[in-house]
Design brief:
Length: 222
């Protein structure tokens, strides 16, 4: 599967520029509040630990939409051969600064050139909600082909029925992106249609920081 066969979202440049603007504020917020530290969220940590256990020994792992790399680094500490990619060059600059022991590169989820059956694991950890509803299935199909049989995919995203136009984020930084929310059953059905078999689902109620969310883990059969 080659990247050029996936539809390029029309607003990709807006999204990239928005994340570049917000990257430093996001990192500052993360460092001062621990908001994105997975160790402070027991159920998210449990999900990531289950993923790490499932992919250990199955080959390289790719963190798609890695942001400043905190989950990439956590998985590296667990001993996985993991690298991160993100649409935003500024996010990747922060990731390289904060986690110099890890490998990071700039790339959109829609522009990855992944070899078939080359990965033991793929993450879309709170990173796929900017993909339009007609593009996400194409990206999931690409992930399926890139996974080795027995390889695992984990996704976390925002739950809802509507598209939310975001105009500011992380301390009133102006942004322009659309958050596409999914119902858990819709997301699971998309993952199944892409050729993966769901193995676990975690539904998260709204808290003081975010609305409801869902984590889904699935594997490529074989």
């Amino acid at each position: 599967m080659h990247a050029h066969s996936i539809d390029r979202p029309a607003d990709l440049d807006d999204v990239r520029q928005s994340y570049d603007r917000v990257a430093d504020a996001y990192v500052h917020l993360m460092q001062t509040t621990g908001m994105a530290d997975i160790r402070r969220h027991p159920w998210l940590k449990a999900s990531m630990d289950a993923f790490a256990d499932s992919v250990a020994g199955h080959g390289p792992v790719l963190d798609v939409g890695c942001g400043p790399g905190q989950v990439t680094a956590y998985l590296a500490e667990r001993g996985l051969d993991v690298s991160g990619v993100d649409l935003s060059p500024r996010m990747i600059e922060n990731a390289r600064r904060l986690h110099p022991q890890c490998r990071f590169s700039v790339a959109s989820a829609t522009e990855l050139d992944l070899e078939e059956a080359s990965l033991g694991g793929v993450l879309g950890w709170w990173s796929l909600f900017n993909l339009p509803r007609d593009v996400l299935p194409q990206v999931l199909a690409m992930f399926t082909r890139a996974l080795r049989p027995g390889g695992h995919f984990i996704a976390a995203t925002h739950v809802g029925d509507e598209d939310f136009q975001r105009t500011e984020a992380y301390g009133d930084v102006p942004v322009r992106w659309t958050t596409h929310k999914w119902q858990p059953d819709q997301l699971t059905a998309l993952i199944e249609r892409a050729g993966l078999r769901p193995v676990a689902e975690l539904r998260l109620p709204a808290d003081e920081q975010t609305g409801p969310g869902v984590v889904v883990m699935a594997k490529r059969p074989g």
